[in-house]
Amino acid sequence: MIVMKFGGTSVEDAQAIRRLVNLVRERLWQQPVIVSSAMAKVTDTLLQATSTAASGNEPATLELLERLESRHIATAHDLLRDCSQTEADISALFAELRPLLSAICALREATPRLSDRIASFGERLATVLVSAALRESGVNAALIDARECIVTDDHFTCAAPLMDASNQRLSARLIPLLEAKRVPVLGGFIAATAQGQTTTLGRGGSDLTAALVGGALDAERVEIWTDVDGIRSTDPRLYGHTRHIESISFQEAAELAQLGAKVLHPSTLIPAMEKNIPVYVLNSRNPLHPGTCVRTECPGDDGVKAIAVKHGITLVQASTARSFRPTGLASEMFSFLEADGCLPDIASIGQTSVTVTVDNKEVVARLTKQFEKRVNIKAENSKALISLVAEGIRQIVGLPVQVLLALDGIEVWMSSPGASQRSFSFVISEKDVPEVVRRLHELLLEDNCSLLAANAEQSVAHAAVV
Questions:
Q1: Residues sharing a CB contact under 8 Å with residue 126, sequence separation 6 or more, in sequence order
Q2: Distance between CA 250 and CA 255 in Å, rounded?
Q3: Residue 166: pLDDT above 60?
Q4: Is 90 exceeded by the pLDDT of residue 462?
Q5: Percent helix, strand and coil across the chain, each rounded to 5?
Q6: Are 41 and 72 in contact (CB under 8 A)?
Q7: Strands across the sheet with 151-152, in order?
Q8: What are the backbone dihedrals phi and psi of residue 276, each rounded to the nearest 5 degrees, phi first?
Q9: Rounded distance, CA 5 to CA 245, Å?
Q10: Residue 87: pLDDT above 60?
Q11: Among 14, 78, 109, 114, which is least packed by CB within 10 angstroms?
Q12: For residues 116 and 189, what is the distance between their CA atoms, to the nearest angstrom?
């Protein structure tokens, strides 16, 4: 069996859902399980409605709900020949949703637990449409509430799955359906505690649901259907001549995601990685494209695989008098940042200072308050973290030197060539990002292997001279 997960843009309207139906029908012989995200932008609108309700503005909240309901019903009319039952199901869900938002309006407060309940409606609505469209096309689809299958802790808005309980429930619920030649359809992103309280899985939650299903059922593969042709060598919005990545290791993909690339979220890969299940990133609008395969190993790969960019970086320097030990400062600083949920991507420890990168400007004020007058805190905003990602990046001879030579004239605020086995990162100003990405892509990702081999010793020698 296989797992087919469809993202928000792959279920955003009737046309997108028709494409989904065609893709599922072509794979019926592989016994698919379908995982669907909410329609594009629906979860954002639900969270906006929650925030609006918490401000006490009930008319604006109801207007947002009316727009959402109209969109889903209009999609049902466009998608289905007979949409009476589906329209009734959609209306029933909104009838359940309105009192929750009215309660928030009255209380002027939205707890994380209540926010999760409201956010869950996006996937619940989308799966009503998807399962109805599949059934109308002749597919024997079974709508499953993911909250009955995925068990989590009670860390609302970013809950962690309880693996044993989730595996047991997924197997018990889905295997009989597959044996009966049915196609289960469940929402991604949503789950519940063992006590039945609705939770959500945080960023990348639908991909995580797909991987959990795949791991529990020992799937042959997990397919992540998006609106792009797999993973690219860098962000196409920054550089127009990116390369398609045919295959990438789980570790490389996780490194890319942690360093800013908009690919699979690192935690979503773990259940598939543990079971050695390949994950394919595919384009629902261009299904003939092979996409990208994320697997345990990519034998024969060498050289830089991709360039990741993380925007909105703040460079924070904490310095002390020489009588203080910098290692003690670093330990205290990292402990504070970890407790604050803002671990740095790279760091540098000097004799009297510690410099880190953070992606949250607000943490600077909290750091300053924490250390008071003991430590001098300085911050540089409007920075970006550029990362080169590859397996065994430390074994690419002369890479740091060639990179720095290529960046002649660009101010590099900080670099970390040895912090990871799979990445080499450095900090530049946001304004320099497009030019830096262009230079590095031309150097390292366009017929670069021979360039590195031929010029490595020459570059090192030149750097030693200058």
A1: 11, 36, 37, 38, 39, 42, 187
A2: 9
A3: yes
A4: no
A5: 45, 20, 30
A6: no
A7: 151-152, 190-193, 198-200
A8: 55, 45
A9: 20
A10: yes
A11: 109
A12: 10
Count Cα neighbours of 257 within 13 Å in the Cβ-side half-sphere.
18
Tokens at 357, concatenated: 């990168």
* pLDDT surpasses 60 at 450: no
Indicate the length of the chain as a whole number.
Answer: 466
Compute how many other C-beta atoms are within 10 angstroms of the C-beta atom of residue 176.
12
Tokens of 379: 């911050």
Segment 342-375, tens digit of pLDDT: 888 888 887 778 899 998 888 888 888 888 778 8
Alpha-carbon distance of 155 to 193, in angstroms, equals 9
**Which tokens go with 76?**
């049902």
Q: Phi/psi at 152 (nearest 5 deg)? A: -130, 175
CA 396, CA 187: separation in Å to the nearest integer?
43
Residue 267 sits at φ, ψ, to 5 deg, of -65, -25
The Cα–Cα gap between 144 and 94 comes to: 19
Is 70 exceeded by the pLDDT of residue 451?
A: no
Can you tell me which residue has the tokens 């900090």?
Answer: 427
The per-type count for the chain, helices as H runs and strands as E runs, is: 15, 17
Point out which residues pair with 348 in neighbouring strands.
355
**Which tokens in the block code for residue 275?**
């079971």
| Residue found by looking up tokens 């505690």 in the block | 193
Give residue 154's identity as a one-letter amino acid code: D
SS3 assignment, position 198: strand
Q: Are strands 347-349 and 306-319 parallel, antiparallel or unpaired?
A: unpaired
User: Which structure tokens are listed for 11?
Assistant: 């279920």
Residue pair 3/223 in contact (Cβ under 8 Å)? The answer is: yes
Q: What span, in angstroms and rounded, lies between the C-alpha atoms of 382 and 307?
A: 19
Give the integer Cα–Cα distance in Å for 103 and 148: 25
Q: Rounded to whole angstroms, how far apart are CA atoms 356 and 345? A: 8
